[in-house]
Amino acid sequence: MKKIYLSLCTVIIAGAASAQVVKQVAGKNTNVGEVPKKTTVAPASEKITIWTNDFSVPADWTVTNDASPAHTNGAWAISTNPAAIPVAALAPAAFATAANGYALVNSDAAGATASQSTKITNTTDINLTAYPNVSLSFSQSHRRFQEQTFVVVSADGGVTWTEFEVNAGMTTNTNTTNPALVQVNISSVAGGQPDVRIGFKYVGAYDWFWAVDDIAIKETDAYDLALTGLFWGTEGYWGARLPYYMVPSTQVSDVIFGGIVQNQGAMTQNDVVFGVTIPTVFTGTSAPGTLTPGQVDTLDATTAFTLPATIATYTATAAVTSSALDAIPANNTIPPVSFAVTPSTYARDNGTIESGSYNSGLAFEVGNIFDIFEDEIVTGVRVYIHPNTVVGSAIYAQLYSINSTGDFVSEELTDAHDIVASDINTWITIPLDEPVLNANGTGSSYLITVGSYGDNGASDDVVVGTAGVSEAQTSFYLDEAGTWFYTTSTPMVRFITDGSVGLNENNADFAVSVFPNPAVSDAKVSFKLANSSDVTITVVDVTGKVVYTNALGNTAAGTHTVDISTDAFAGGVYTVNFNTNNSIVSKKLVVKK
Q: Is the dihedral of CA 76, 79, 84, 85 positive or negative?
């Protein structure tokens, strides 16, 4: 059992291999078309409401600003303008009583040289003598970078304060819902006390913003567990637990599941169990864990799901349980997650476009780390072109290996493709020259990106779709100055391993694929002819020696498959040449022995 703090601001990757791969990052990632992410805060209890406030009376609140020098334009302020929210995706504020007033701190508006340590607190004592177990609930709107956000509580009329950090589970450059409901158990400080005050504290420096409204203090349920997130994926050479939503059958490995669980009740629970189920194929549970009131912990299932190489889709459902009668069973589960074993696609994005990455018409690249468990041939890079992309923009793909000092080393840079109208808001494939990704026996990792040389800022140029959230240091962004950043919005950049038709083959009269690849004793060459043609297939080893020839002669239009026995081939990389009507297509073939 380990504690997890998802707001990773340091440049560290977990795992034994991580020491050699550390990239410095800086600045806030620029995205377009942002949509709110799902909040990871469970619904509040429906117990007795003791005290409420909606910021309709500014005199109820006091603002203090401890930053030095003080920047008042970045401190807490009470606004009655719902449109004052500085992030378009979260504006206008959807608080129930936003028009009557809400509290807002805007770090972004204070500028790059400003810092904030600002607090807004209520001005009169709240008597909670009759209530030993109490929770503070409120509505919030928040875009996260590297700031810290706290609920603050005093039991002595505001002389001393205890801080409860909230939003620590949000990754950088992501949004809450609009609004999100937060509940914090404050019984340890405020329960049974006559002189309670509450407030909100923001510590940041050119970060984003935080807004709060519709505050209430309620009785806390004795037993209330909440499953607030699923920490799942495959742990390979890179060291991070990476969720792969699509996995080629050649790269299957164990999938590990963990549940992010919060005790929102008033009582310690000693037998908390996280469970995950994939119907008919897998059930996993964690060892029983102990959670004190307010504690958040990650409970890993004690067994991993060994992903079969069979082409199929798997859906995992998860829940948290204990022996106690839970006050709000609805927050003990989260929506299921689905992932698939595919013939040829490796994907880190979840497939549903949420946003986009770009560089305002300047050069950039963006892409993902992929762990390699077996030698693999990459035939192309698939990328989702965001609707804001300008027709006529040029996009390319680049493959990087990672050297012993942790630097990204270019292995292949493709020609640029000029985007046409039919490419917008859909997937396109950029073909590669079939590089071999080497697993090196124990596994390896590669970075695959797409990029643009830009148009000198004349337009937004290329915008790459993003879908889902990446752990820090697993998806990367290269700016026009050659500086690597990490991004926590997952780029919709995938790689494919078959001979699917790419951009350069759209007008060809044939298509060719080689599978399985790698092969052991047999390989197949599949091809589709638009017209009857003379066909010859040859296989050449790395020395240039022809080890296989098959002259098929005149072959009818349609789809055909040729079997090649590789029993007599030594292990290694071969080139399969497909020759028809004086046109040649070459595919790499890996033979494993």
A: positive
Strands (E), 123-179: 134-144, 148-154, 162-166, 174-175
Distance, CA of 192 to CA of 190 (rounded, Å): 6
Q: Enumerate the CATH 2.60.40.1930 domain ranges in the chain, comma separated.
A: 508-591
Write out the two tokens for 3.
Answer: 């504690």
Quote the pLDDT of residue 59: 97
pLDDT along the chain (593 residues), means of 10: 22 25 36 35 59 97 77 80 91 96 92 87 97 94 92 97 90 84 91 97 92 95 91 95 95 96 92 97 98 92 96 96 92 94 95 89 95 91 96 96 89 94 96 88 94 93 92 90 87 82 47 80 87 92 91 91 92 88 82 83
In whole angstroms, what is the distance from residue 387 CA to residue 221 CA?
A: 47
Tell me how far apart the alpha carbons of residues 412 and 436 are, in angstroms, rounded to a whole number: 11
Cβ-count burial 192-211 (b if 16+ within 10 Å, e if not) = ebebbbbbbbbbbbbbbbbb
> Helix or strand or coil: residue 140?
strand
Q: Which two structure tokens, joined as six digits, stand for 218?
A: 């309620």
Q: Which pLDDT score, from 0 to 100, does residue 68 have? A: 58
Give yes or no for a cis peptide into 179 (omega within 30° of 0).
yes
Q: What is the CATH number of domain 508-591?
A: 2.60.40.1930
How open is the CA angle 14-18-24, to the nearest 5 degrees? 100
User: Other CB atoms closer than 10 Å to residue 593's CB: what's the count?
Assistant: 10
**Backbone dihedral region for residue 418 (phi beyond 0: left; psi -120 to 50: alpha; all else: beta):** beta
> Distance between CA 552 and CA 345 in Å, rounded?
31
Residues 255 and 294 sit within 8 Å (Cβ to Cβ): no
Distance CA 472, CA 336 (A): 23
Q: How much is the pLDDT for 498?
A: 67
The first and second tokens of residue 240, run together, are 């991070």
Question: Residue 19: helix, strand or coil by DSSP?
Answer: helix
Residues 258-301 have pLDDT tens digits of: 999 999 888 999 999 999 999 999 999 999 999 998 888 999 99
At the top level of CATH, the class of 365-496 is mainly beta
Rg (C-alpha) for the chain, rounded Å, is 28
Query: How far apart are the C-alpha atoms of 220 and 66, rounded to whole Å?
Result: 32
- State both tokens at 157: 């009329």
- Looking at residue 73, what is its pLDDT? 64
For residue 236, report the phi and psi dihedrals to the nearest 5 degrees.
Answer: -115, -150
Residues 5, 40 contacting (CB under 8 angstroms): no
Look up the CATH number of domain 46-219.
Answer: 2.60.120.260
Answer for the pair 101, 79: CB distance below 8 angstroms, yes or no.
yes
Place of tokens 């013939």: 343
Helical H segments across 213-348, by residue range: none
Domain with CATH 2.60.120.260 in the chain: 46-219
Place of tokens 């699923």: 230
Residue 399 to residue 438: CA distance in whole angstroms: 13
* CA pair distance 18, 235, nearest whole angstrom: 12
